């Protein structure tokens, strides 16, 4: 049976119905005389690897506690973002206290690490909307990239931007799917209110629930983390390194903004050369002060706002102190970032989003953002 013939995971209002639905996906209907042990239908399954690899003892234990081990031993295909033991140790203590007493919520968190498809690393996308991954628990996680797309993260809805789960090993093959290893637990929206303290990169002494010791079978070698590159391109590097931003680059240099965009933490809505050509007749009439004001109206200071941080119809304060507004399409995906002097027919459309830089993020726009009072 193909997944498409089943109800969508997002339609499961209660975990019990989700578990029953997913159990039906991995269990073939058989007669009493034709009992089939699907767990041994192929090997090694995702469950086999999780329970026989050093570094996944906590994950294995939790799969057993929630009766999900049999699901991940089924036909699939599945892709699992598997947290290491150390990832569970980093969980907020308040969240852990809830999860150890709420098996249904724990199962939901675990299923938020599973997508019902084969998704090898080469198919992970860095830019919205192609970077959304639908999870079995319902809702999406998001692939985000840094360091020239060399460092990949799989962000849950409730994971903060400054502490995202990094994908540290990829494409571990099982007979029923693929495992990618992550260094933090992916958090769905359902647990956001349970997190009391900011995540820590150190291991708190009481953060993880007690778990059983070693598995009975000899473990294989543990996955090792991949060191992130130590260099990356700044926003200024990217803007001045691409032909389509040559006008933006020349203006940034002319008005002494390149230095600022080489450090700090910024969000930049970057107009293409065509965007500046569209207002070429107006630019000569603008004073230097006004041009600087317009350039700063493309920048959000002290924040890297990715596309999923942009809220429909919300105002965004720009570096010149004025507000732009995010406008979304019918699917509630950000489509325009508009200023007060942008007309309806020439609103800056988000052509490409979530281009990472080591000091922020860039979104490409089709028109120049014009704050109110810019045009003569």
From TrEMBL:
InterPro entries: Adhesion/Biosynth-related (IPR050904), FAS1_domain (IPR000782). Pfam families: Fasciclin. Coiled coil: none annotated. SMART domains: FAS1 (SM00554). GO terms for cellular component: extracellular space. Residues 43-186, 232-369 form the FAS1 domain. The keyword Isomerase does not apply. Keywords: Signal. PANTHER family: FI19380P1 (PTHR10900:SF77), PERIOSTIN-RELATED (PTHR10900). This is Secreted/surface protein with fasciclin-like repeat domain.
């Amino acid at each position: 049976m193909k997944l498409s013939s089943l109800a969508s995971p997002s339609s499961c209002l209660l975990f019990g119905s989700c578990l029953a639905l997913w159990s039906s996906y991995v269990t073939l209907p058989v007669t009493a005389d034709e009992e089939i042990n699907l767990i041994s239908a192929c090997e090694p399954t995702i469950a086999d690897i999780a329970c026989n690899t050093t570094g996944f003892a906590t994950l294995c234990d939790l799969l057993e506690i929630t009766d999900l081990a049999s699901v991940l031993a089924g036909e699939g295909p599945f892709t699992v973002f598997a947290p290491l033991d150390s990832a569970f140790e980093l969980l907020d203590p308040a969240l852990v206290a809830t999860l150890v007493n709420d098996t249904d919520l724990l199962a939901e968190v675990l299923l938020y690490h599973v997508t019902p498809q084969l998704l090898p690393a080469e198919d992970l996308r860095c830019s919205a909307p192609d970077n959304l991954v639908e999870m079995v628990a319902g809702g999406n996680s998001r692939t985000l990239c840094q360091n020239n797309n060399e460092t990949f993260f799989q962000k849950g809805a409730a994971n903060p931007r400054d502490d995202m789960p990094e994908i540290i090993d990829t494409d571990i093959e099982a007979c029923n799917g693929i495992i990618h290893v992550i260094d933090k637990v992916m958090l769905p929206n359902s647990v956001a209110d349970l997190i009391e303290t900011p995540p820590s990169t150190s291991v708190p002494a009481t953060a993880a629930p007690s778990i059983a010791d070693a598995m009975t079978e000899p473990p294989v070698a543990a996955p090792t983390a991949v060191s992130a590159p130590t260099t990356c391109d700044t926003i200024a590097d990217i803007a001045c390194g691409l032909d389509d931003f040559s006008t933006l680059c020349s203006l940034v240099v002319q008005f002494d903004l390149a230095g600022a965009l080489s450090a700090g933490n910024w969000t930049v809505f970057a107009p293409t050369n065509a965007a500046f050509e569209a207002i070429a007749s107006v630019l000569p009439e603008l004073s230097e002060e006004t041009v600087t004001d317009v350039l700063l109206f493309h920048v959000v200071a002290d924040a890297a706002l990715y596309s999923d941080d942009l809220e429909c119809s919300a105002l965004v304060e720009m570096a010149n102190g004025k507000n732009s507004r995010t406008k979304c399409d019918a699917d509630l995906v950000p489509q325009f970032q508009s200023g007060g002097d942008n007309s309806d027919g020439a609103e800056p459309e988000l052509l490409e989003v979530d281009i990472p830089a080591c000091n922020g993020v860039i979104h490409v726009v089709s028109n120049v953002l014009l704050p109110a009072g810019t045009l003569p």
